[in-house]
Amino acid sequence: MSDRLSDVRDVARGLPRRPLLAVGVLLLLAVPFLFPGQSDLATEALIFGLFAISVDIVLGYAGLLSLAPAAFFGLGAYTVAKLVVDYGQSFWLGFPLAIVLALILAFVVGYVPIKRRIGNVYFVLFTLAFGAIVHDFFFVTTWLTGGSDGLGFFGPPEVLGIDLGGSTAYYYLTLGAVATVGYGLYVLIKSDYGDVLHATRQNELRMRYLGYDTNRELMIAWLVSAAVSAFAGAVYVGLVGIASPSLVSFALTGDVIIWIIVGGTGTLLGPFAAAIGLVFTQELLQNLWQGGYRLLLGVLFVVFVFVLPDGLVGLLRGDE
Amino acid sequence: MLEIPLITTENFITYALNGLSRGMIIFLVASGLSLIFGLIGLINFAHGAMLALGGYGTYVVIQATGNFWLGLVVSVLLVSLLGLALERKVLYWIYDEPLLGFLSTFGIGLVIEEALAVYFGSRSYTVQSPLSQSVEVLGVSYPSYRLFVILVGAAVALGVGLVLVKTRLGLEIHATANMQSTAEILGVDTARIYTITFVLGTALAALAGALTAPITSMYPTIGLDYITMAFLVIIVGGMGSFKGSFVVSMIVGQVIAFGWLVLSPTYVRILVFAAAMVFILYKPRGFFGKAEVHE
């Protein structure tokens, strides 16, 4: 296996970066023409790709495994839905509001555990409880969130004569948004701040001796992640037109963790690609083997955790 | 908003007994998690899947033989064997990395739950209660099966508690949990202690699943609801403290039973989880936790 694998690696390494990127961009731009009728699926894949990136910021770079990313994704979706459905406000107003609410909630929930440095194990359990509370809350407060029925139905408005509710238009809108935010996160991670975060994950004590306020660095990552997750949720609700409790469910949290592990933690591009690939795989398998997708996903996840802990990106890079 | 219902002596006893049987199930789940967590430092997320397997195993045997008791014994044995295989073949070499351990068991749990969903479908199953009559307890009529659950839970608490406190095995478990290297130097086979503890924990989860099958309907992800609660119980009770998980399970059982009088079940859950979050932050060792905290 290793011979063939190293061949793949050589090919992957030898590929010129810029033309490869150009091909990727062209491919993404051409999706509505290449796969007519599949734009909605591609839009969903892009949104989940951005969601995976946002969670990779805390898991891969800050080293904090949160079991509540769906809470922020769902918060973003519900904020937009609430404004449009119950208050008749503008669809666009929901986006900044969703981000602000996510930042406030993330700050309130994250401040004490990060400041007190409760440790990985307790952080996992802390966020497990938080995620369960948020899910229960959205489920039970029928007067606020519509309970199990959720909040729907609506579509994004018409802008400059273009109906954004149409599949193709919303795909391009999403592509633009995901590319912009994704590039912003890439710049952030490649900046000095990204290096500090990386070093903190490797040896927090030493970074503290060097005078870095590591709590602040972790807090920034946590807030950025929450804001982008909420933004992804807000874009998502424009696609599906309804905010329902499944968007804050533990199943979605599980999915995003799987995308990240399969793609490669701390690589941004890996989780993005894995999310897109797995969303399409799910669609393909849906018709062939009902229910089999999630079983396959579980097996894939276990294989990656044990055999390929660096994910697809690590496989291609040949990291040891 | 709040409606305070009339509490008579009779329904007070009924509610207290309901809380006790609910608390016992939580205790069976939590004590297994706590033993594994306290000794190995592993957040065993596959624990809920073991509970589901215990429940489904019981269902399958009942379908084949019509005998609940046989189903209970067989499913607990089989799930324990699965736990043994998992520990020996897979988990033992990731004990040093808590995050990897969590992810592994998360994946294993997912595979088991999805396999159940593929085989049985996602609809829920119910099992006929083996003891359908009621008995008189303290002047109220109470379902005898729930009373049986209470007795089993108490017996397990007493039995495992005595093993931990009175026997050489218990001593070795404590020694391994507190100071593994010293225990090894003194001749304790710590790998064996790990295996025994993991299998015991798994058996307790399977027992909880089998016992709960006639009370609640089963679905593939049933374990998730239980282990979220159980993890928080062992946080409040103190990591690895057997006594702690017993006491807190009993308290949570009563809080749920009486909380339902004034609030909807979901609000009660939210309150319990919120209390546990505060505990994690300000008192991470819980009420009874003394042993070294695993990071």
Automatic annotation (TrEMBL), chain A:
<dbReference type="Pfam" id="PF02653">
    <property type="entry name" value="BPD_transp_2"/>
</dbReference>
<keyword id="KW-1133">Transmembrane helix</keyword>
<keyword id="KW-1003">Cell membrane</keyword>
<feature type="transmembrane region" description="Helical">
    <location>
        <begin position="218"/>
        <end position="244"/>
    </location>
</feature>
<keyword id="KW-0472">Membrane</keyword>
<keyword id="KW-0812">Transmembrane</keyword>
<keyword id="KW-0614">Plasmid</keyword>
<feature type="transmembrane region" description="Helical">
    <location>
        <begin position="91"/>
        <end position="114"/>
    </location>
</feature>
<feature type="transmembrane region" description="Helical">
    <location>
        <begin position="293"/>
        <end position="316"/>
    </location>
</feature>
<dbReference type="GO" id="GO:0005886">
    <property type="term" value="C:plasma membrane"/>
</dbReference>
<feature type="transmembrane region" description="Helical">
    <location>
        <begin position="121"/>
        <end position="144"/>
    </location>
</feature>
<feature type="transmembrane region" description="Helical">
    <location>
        <begin position="256"/>
        <end position="281"/>
    </location>
</feature>
<dbReference type="InterPro" id="IPR001851">
    <property type="entry name" value="ABC_transp_permease"/>
</dbReference>
<protein>
    <submittedName>
        <fullName>Branched-chain amino acid ABC transporter permease</fullName>
    </submittedName>
</protein>
<dbReference type="GO" id="GO:0015658">
    <property type="term" value="F:branched-chain amino acid transmembrane transporter activity"/>
</dbReference>
<feature type="transmembrane region" description="Helical">
    <location>
        <begin position="169"/>
        <end position="189"/>
    </location>
</feature>
<feature type="transmembrane region" description="Helical">
    <location>
        <begin position="20"/>
        <end position="39"/>
    </location>
</feature>
<dbReference type="InterPro" id="IPR043428">
    <property type="entry name" value="LivM-like"/>
</dbReference>
<feature type="transmembrane region" description="Helical">
    <location>
        <begin position="45"/>
        <end position="62"/>
    </location>
</feature>
UniProtKB/TrEMBL annotation, chain B:
<keyword id="KW-0472">Membrane</keyword>
<keyword id="KW-1133">Transmembrane helix</keyword>
<feature type="transmembrane region" description="Helical">
    <location>
        <begin position="193"/>
        <end position="212"/>
    </location>
</feature>
<dbReference type="InterPro" id="IPR052157">
    <property type="entry name" value="BCAA_transport_permease"/>
</dbReference>
<keyword id="KW-0813">Transport</keyword>
<keyword id="KW-1003">Cell membrane</keyword>
<dbReference type="GO" id="GO:0005886">
    <property type="term" value="C:plasma membrane"/>
</dbReference>
<keyword id="KW-0614">Plasmid</keyword>
<protein>
    <submittedName>
        <fullName>Branched-chain amino acid ABC transporter permease</fullName>
    </submittedName>
</protein>
<keyword id="KW-0812">Transmembrane</keyword>
<dbReference type="GO" id="GO:0022857">
    <property type="term" value="F:transmembrane transporter activity"/>
</dbReference>
<feature type="transmembrane region" description="Helical">
    <location>
        <begin position="66"/>
        <end position="86"/>
    </location>
</feature>
<dbReference type="GO" id="GO:0006865">
    <property type="term" value="P:amino acid transport"/>
</dbReference>
<feature type="transmembrane region" description="Helical">
    <location>
        <begin position="25"/>
        <end position="46"/>
    </location>
</feature>
<dbReference type="InterPro" id="IPR001851">
    <property type="entry name" value="ABC_transp_permease"/>
</dbReference>
<keyword id="KW-0029">Amino-acid transport</keyword>
<dbReference type="Pfam" id="PF02653">
    <property type="entry name" value="BPD_transp_2"/>
</dbReference>
<comment type="similarity">
    <text>Belongs to the binding-protein-dependent transport system permease family. LivHM subfamily.</text>
</comment>
<feature type="transmembrane region" description="Helical">
    <location>
        <begin position="267"/>
        <end position="282"/>
    </location>
</feature>
<feature type="transmembrane region" description="Helical">
    <location>
        <begin position="98"/>
        <end position="122"/>
    </location>
</feature>
<feature type="transmembrane region" description="Helical">
    <location>
        <begin position="142"/>
        <end position="165"/>
    </location>
</feature>
